Amino acid sequence: MDDGRPIFLQIAERIENSIIEGGLPEDTQVPSTNELAAFHRINPATAAKGVNHLVDDGILYKKRGIGMFVSPGAQAKLRQRRRDQFAEQYLQPLLAEAAKLGIRTTELMAMIERHEETR
Prior knowledge:
By secondary structure, this protein is mainly alpha-helical. It has helices at about 5-20, 35-40, 45-55, 75-100, 105-119; strands spanning about 60-65, 65-70.
């Protein structure tokens, strides 16, 4: 919890990652704000803000008196959002730099394939 972004966003992202990776399937309960606060040693209000951020986005839903649960379709929604962000954050700058350097699309794809083989 120290990458310079607000803590509540980091909490929300960690929950999102668990959903994307399958650790929190649809309709399963997420840790309570008190559990999150104790685990991360943060204020419960901050943990609640992160959870409520996901409720506002439709990723989580509340069962009154029970807790927060992963919404149906949350994993697909998050994956699509992350794919869109990936294109914006990584592909657009990559393609712009490749164009500056005169790297054609076919060359770029070959570079990616070579690097993928060495992983």
